[in-house]
Amino acid sequence: MHKVVTVKSKAMPLPMKDVDTDLIIPAQFLTSISKDGYGANLFRRMRDNDANFPMNRKEFDGATILVTDSNFGCGSSREHAVWALTGAGFKVVIAKSFSDIFYNNSAKNALLLVILPDKVVDQILEASKGADYEVTVNLETQTVTLPDGTEHKFEYDQFRKHCMLNGLDDIEYIRSHAADIQEFRTRQEQNRYMSTRGA
Amino acid sequence: MSAAATKKAPEKSSKATAKNIVQKIWDAHVVKQLDGHPCVFAIDLMLLHEVTSAQAFQLIESRNIEVFDPSRLLATIDHSTPTRQNRWEIYDEAARTQVETLRNNCKKHNIPFLDFDSGKQGIVHVVGPELGVTQPGMTIVCGDSHTSTHGAFGALAFGVGTSEVAHVMATGCLLQKKPQTMRVEFKGRFKKGVYAKDAILKLIGEIGVGGANGHVIEYVGEAVRAMSMEERMTVCNMSIECGARAGLIAPDEVTFKYLKGRAHAPSAEKWDEAVAFWSSFASDEDSNFDKSVTIDLDKLEPIVTWGTNPAQNVGLSERIPKLDTLVDNERAVAVRALEYTKLKEQQTLEGTPVEWAFVGSCTNGRIEDLRIVANVLKGRKVNQNVTMYVVPGSEAVMKQCQDEGLVDIFREAGADFRMPGCSMCLAMNDDQVPPGKRCISSSNRNFVGRQGPESITHLASPATVAASAIAGCIKSPAEYV
Ligand code: SF4
């Protein structure tokens, strides 16, 4: 996993609540067996149906920060939604809140999710409509800096932060506890009533 | 579990020793918890399907990691498989590759795989319970958000992404944060023509699509106790639609009776010991929850969605809300939704013409659901303007339908009875509602384009779907049941 520290980019606004992962990447495009290629179909339906959708506007080319409303990423657990966002070049999503599974999936793919107060998100959504609104997100200091210089702190889990800043992933962390895992499973054996063997 | 989407609530009852079922299952699966770190959390069973597993196999193989314990894994094919008779032949190349990749991966890693015509293939969340691998007190994950279905057995079951699928393959564990808990009480009794599906739609409508974010729900109350296992599965299945990480129901006699004798349930010698162990997970009497909601079923009527998320629903005698009574945020969502579903504020849904009807999915594709549908269709005809698909949740359900004569009823009524799979629930295969067409569906999501590009979905109970298929328009099942 690559490291995430500071991202500076114009913000692309998506002023919608409850954007589900079906909208982010429709099911028809989930048939690949690799993690690549999903970026081409990010927000496919909205792109096809609305000429003014920000991703269809040249001014937003190269934007790596997406700003949206609340409960972003709800619905299907498909990690493909995260792969579509990172595949299309996004590094940060700023919102009022995120769905749980999407939040987990993002952290595992170096996509930084930033939760800011409703008022601040509304302000960025409004100001970024013109495509010339540059925002800086710094994970180290946990701050978002707006063009007028105002700074907003955001909360971030310290363990996750450590992983993101150093490009570490969960598998190695869990495997470093192999002895504990072995001990747990041995202990659990006495109350084990299920095996899929023979299915 | 991340509490990212909700505000932090203080840890409750650190003094009290009373624990609820979620806390008990949690405590029984903590492998290691270091200060300031997430918990290394043990997973007892992982279900696999073709769409969210290939990249996970690649990940562990690229690091030369062996599968931790294949006897805790179970795979099947459901999401992108055809539901026509000759389904061994998959025309779509990408879908074919996905299915073959899973078949090969399971062979290579010794993972039990339920293939076509094994008699056991079906939707992951239908086959797990059927085989008895879903048991109380367990932790269960799958790369699919409706894994919450298994919570009906008193298991902590939740959806994970593909990276986490790889973590469990590699280690049998996940990194997790302790979830918050929510108590949902269903009071009273169902009226005629009202079902578990209506109850869960009602809850989602009441608290909204993010109403339970970060929480695990325990469903309690006399109405829950009176439900069959299949009804409980319908309720737990849709927990994710109000944002809950999982939903579960404490095991009881109904649970044990369902499990007894199933292929992977404990043997006769171990049975009593297992039941005693399972029973120990029930919530202690005065245990605390972070949130609590009560839903009264006495007045509940058949519910149908009008918008593009499952919370946008009304009872059939009610009207779609007046837009200016909604708060800002919700109004914008509702305006967009109504534009898409071509409906108007303050309109009632009954009488709205439908061209498609779908019975199936992990929400309502089990034998009891299909019996209800057959009961409504018996001696009647599906309206000539309606195409109706009936898709059993598994090969076992299909066989039961054949044995009980339900297939003949479906065919005589003019419905298309198909091979098992997810089918029109997410339209990854050929089963799609054509653009602009309106479908009444027993599935769980009415998102924009979910059943095919530009398709319009109305979620409802299987009985409401069947009644509407006959009438050719949205209709209450009350007079048919
Ligand atoms: S039936 Fe629908 S919700 Fe259930 S597993 Fe299949 S696609 Fe997912």
Question: Brief description of this entry?
Answer:
Chain A has 199 residues and is α/β, with parallel strands linked by helices. Chain A is 31% helix and 16% strand.
Quaternary: heterodimer
Number of strands of chain A: 7
Under CATH at level 1, the class of the largest domain in chain A stands as Alpha Beta
CATH fold title of the largest domain in chain B: Aconitase, domain 3
CATH topology of the largest domain in chain A: Aconitase, domain 4
Task: Explain what you see.
The complex is a heterodimer of chains A (199) and B (481). Chain A is α/β, with parallel strands linked by helices and 199 residues long. In chain A, β2, α3 (80-87) and β3 (92-95) form a beta-alpha-beta unit. Chain A contains eight helices and seven strands, in the order βααβαβαβαβββααα. Chain A starts with 5 loop residues before the first strand and ends in an 11-residue tail after the last helix. Chain A has two domains: 6-168, Aconitase, domain 4; 169-199. Chain A is globular. Chain A has a seven-stranded mixed β-sheet, sandwiched between helices. In chain B, α3 (93-109) links the parallel β4 and β5 (113-114). Chain B has two domains: 3-180 and 245-286, Aconitase, domain 3; 304-480, Aconitase, domain 3 (2-Layer Sandwich). Chain B starts with 20 loop residues before the first helix and ends in a 10-residue tail after the last helix. In chain B, α2 crosses α5 (162-171) and α13 (367-377) crosses α15 (406-413). In chain B, the strands form five sheets. Chain B has a five-stranded parallel β-sheet, with helices on both faces. Chain B has helices at residues 21-27, 54-62, 93-109, 124-131, 162-171, 196-207, 222-225, 229-237, 253-259, 268-279, 328-341, 361-364, 367-377, 395-403, 406-413, 462-471; strands spanning 30-32, 39-42, 45-48, 73-76, 113-114, 139-142, 156-159, 173-176, 180-187, 215-220, 246-248, 291-296, 303-305, 313-315, 356-359, 387-390, 416-417, 438-441, 456-459. Chain B is α/β, with parallel strands linked by helices. Chain B is 31% helix and 16% strand. At the A-B interface, α4, α7 and α8 of A face α2, α3, α5, β8 and α10 of B. Residues 78-79, 123-125, 144, 146, 361-362, 422, 425-426, 443-444 of chain B line the site of iron/sulfur cluster (SF4).
